[in-house]
Design goal:
With about 100 residues, this protein is mainly α. It contains five helices and two strands; from the N terminus they run αββαααα. Strands 1-2 form a two-stranded antiparallel sheet. A hairpin with a 6-residue loop joins strand 1 and strand 2.
């Protein structure tokens, strides 16, 4: 989700101690809570991808059957890339996007 309201509410940026680069932190539990309460405007597929991302990032529980069964090919490809990245297989996914 690239919406400004998401970034303003749930993403914090700070300078990393080592190297001085920027570090972004997402408050995934708060984002999912806002989504469940209807306080986060997004499409159904955006909400499902957000739930999956939160689960990968912080262990937020998600019903994969519900989330995956209605995503289109593009969104499924993003989920596959995220899963491979999380498992240490960065760039080895074979998924084009």
């Amino acid at each position: 989700m690239r919406r400004g309201e998401f970034v303003c509410r749930f993403v914090w940026v700070a300078r990393a101690l080592a190297g001085g680069g920027l570090l972004a932190v997402v408050d995934w539990p708060a984002a999912v809570k806002a989504l469940a309460a209807g306080g986060l405007p997004c499409s159904g597929s955006e909400g499902r991808v957000l739930r999956i991302a939160a689960s990968i990032a912080t262990g937020v529980r998600v019903d994969l059957s519900d989330c995956l069964s209605t995503l289109d090919d593009s969104d499924i490809a993003l989920v596959v890339k995220a899963m491979l990245h999380a498992s240490g297989r960065r760039g080895a996914d074979g998924v084009t996007r």
